[in-house]
């Protein structure tokens, strides 16, 4: 707490301690973005008319009569997510087909025309209530593209769409994130016209500048995803759940923007499909995805699709639970915690090397202004075996580190276990195909940012580890250095 106060005082320019905190460097995240990044991973839930039609993109003429999830239990779904260690969920209140799963006043193409609960059901309400009960953040996806609405592509649709945003953001309590999908395929039902509609520039048509302003008034803490990059977070570049680009810089075009990687737990699709049990991702695969998203400083949104009864698939849940245990095992013990730290330099006691291993995400080690290369040597009380290195910068002061190196004292000499990234080099993976898998282990030390995890090719056993900040844009502010051990799925059981 004291450290947090000093950090805050540092921002105000007070110099209670001998050395003041450094000035922020470049764009800094908002408080909401900092909190959001700490959520790491959460669920995506695609559930609507497509669940009943074996489709991914409904045309917009499917009958609302199809929607009848006899055993839907929002509470059970939320508990499953929470038990797995997820930190929230986002529900597709409306997908591209335009079917609204809450009793909206904006259109009659909604759940009010479904047999479920005699047209009095509200899926958004049930999820929002269950989330509140379990203290679990709730978010919403509201497709801008609407293949049902007769006015889509014309100014008239905007009144409909803005009304929907308003309903979702004012009637269901706090929304931690709202998702504005970029898809706008063209053809659709459009009130019976059955034609192709081109909206030109989405940013211009939807007037995202205004949408963002309106959302800030209704829900100032809500993270806005997409919206032609006018919001707080953006797509990390693949639908396989990995962040395509590393090094990852959050400062882009003069602002701080967070990355979110999306994927579905089941290869059959975002919505539920018959035969789905055979398409589930293994816990080991989910861990690879996690290391390539959260481990690169992005957040991960993982889709689970309820079936026609409104229940999650047992195979999906079993694998999710197993991954949840693996992740907990990975994070359960930080072997660097409370290690003694000797640094090449620090700007004063409040910023000395011990901040790296104190388990406090806010305190940080920092050398003097102008120093952009420095070392910190960790002495563990006894030898430990680890294979994941996790580093964090104090991003409230901006993102600074460009390259780092980690060495371990093995058999009487320093052995480099994470090589520093060179200028111009990257570990970028294409959005399609399997090439990203080659980057899962053995990566180099480029950016750190909110957090970076490097999964070593082999476990290392030692009692002495050295971090070198090789290049930084300003004096590095490193809040955490952790040594973790990846459990196998078997060990996690
Ligand atoms: C995409 C959509 O077209 C998919 O149907 C899905 O909702 C995915 C999360 O985003 O852009």
Could you characterize the architecture of this molecule?
This protein is of the alpha/beta class and about 500 residues long. It folds into two domains: about 300 residues, Glycosidases (TIM Barrel), CATH 3.20.20; about 150 residues, Jelly Rolls (Sandwich). About 20% of the residues lie in helices and about 25% in strands. The protein contains eleven helices and 18 strands. The strands form four sheets. It has an eight-stranded parallel sheet with strand order 7-4-3-2-1-12-11-8, with helices on both faces. Strands 13, 14, 15, 16, 17 and 18 form a six-stranded antiparallel sheet that branches. Helix 9 packs across helix 10. The protein is globular and about 75 Å long. The two termini are about 35 Å apart. About 50% of the residues are buried. It binds beta-L-fucopyranose. The site of beta-L-fucopyranose has 5 residues, from loops. The site of beta-L-fucopyranose (FUL) has 5 residues, from loops.
């Amino acid at each position: 707490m004291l450290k947090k106060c000093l950090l805050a005082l540092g921002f105000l320019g007070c110099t209670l301690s001998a050395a003041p905190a450094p000035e922020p460097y470049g764009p800094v995240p908002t408080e909401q973005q900092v909190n959001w990044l700490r959520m790491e991973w959460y669920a995506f839930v695609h559930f609507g008319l497509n669940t009943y039609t074996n489709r991914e993109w409904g045309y917009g003429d499917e009958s609302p009569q199809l929607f009848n999830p006899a055993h839907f239990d929002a509470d059970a779904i939320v508990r499953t997510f929470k038990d797995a260690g997820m930190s929230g969920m986002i529900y597709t209140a409306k997908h591209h087909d335009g079917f609204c799963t809450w009793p909206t006043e904006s259109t009659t193409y909604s759940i009010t025309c479904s047999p479920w609960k005699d047209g009095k059901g509200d899926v958004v309400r049930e999820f929002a209530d269950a989330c509140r009960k379990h203290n679990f953040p709730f978010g919403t996806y509201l497709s801008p593209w609407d293949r049902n609405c007769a006015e889509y592509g014309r100014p008239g649709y905007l009144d409909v769409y803005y009304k929907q945003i308003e309903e979702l953001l004012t009637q269901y309590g706090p929304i931690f994130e709202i998702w504005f999908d970029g898809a706008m395929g063209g053809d659709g039902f459009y009130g019976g016209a059955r034609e192709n509609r081109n909206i030109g520039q989405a940013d211009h048509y939807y007037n995202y500048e205004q949408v963002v302003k309106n959302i800030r008034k209704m829900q100032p803490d809500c993270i806005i995803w997409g919206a032609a990059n006018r919001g707080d977070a953006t797509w990390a570049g693949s639908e396989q759940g990995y962040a395509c680009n590393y090094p990852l810089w959050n400062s882009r075009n003069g602002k701080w923007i967070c990355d979110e990687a999306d994927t579905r737990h089941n290869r059959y699709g975002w919505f539920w499909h018959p035969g789905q049990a055979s398409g589930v991702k293994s816990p080991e695969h989910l861990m690879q995805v996690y290391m390539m998203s959260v481990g690169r400083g992005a957040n991960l949104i993982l889709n689970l699709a309820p079936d026609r009864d409104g229940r999650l698939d047992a195979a999906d849940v079993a694998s999710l639970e197993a991954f949840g245990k693996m992740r907990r095992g990975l994070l359960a013990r930080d072997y660097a915690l409370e290690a003694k730290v000797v640094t090449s330099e620090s700007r004063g006691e409040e910023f000395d090397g011990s901040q790296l291993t104190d388990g406090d995400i806010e305190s940080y080690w920092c050398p003097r202004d102008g120093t952009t290369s420095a070392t910190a040597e960790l002495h563990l009380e006894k030898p430990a075996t680890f294979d994941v290195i996790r580093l964090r910068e104090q991003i409230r002061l901006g993102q600074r580190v460009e390259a780092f190196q980690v060495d371990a004292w093995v058999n009487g000499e320093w052995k480099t276990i994470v090589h520093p990234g060179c200028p111009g080099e990257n570990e970028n993976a294409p959005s399609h195909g399997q090439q990203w898998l080659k980057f899962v282990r053995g990566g180099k030390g480029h950016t750190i940012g909110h957090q970076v995890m490097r999964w070593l090719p082999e476990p290392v056993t030692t009692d002495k580890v050295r971090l070198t900040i090789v290049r930084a844009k300003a004096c590095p502010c490193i809040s955490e250095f952790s040594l973790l051990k990846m459990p196998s799925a078997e060990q996690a059981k």
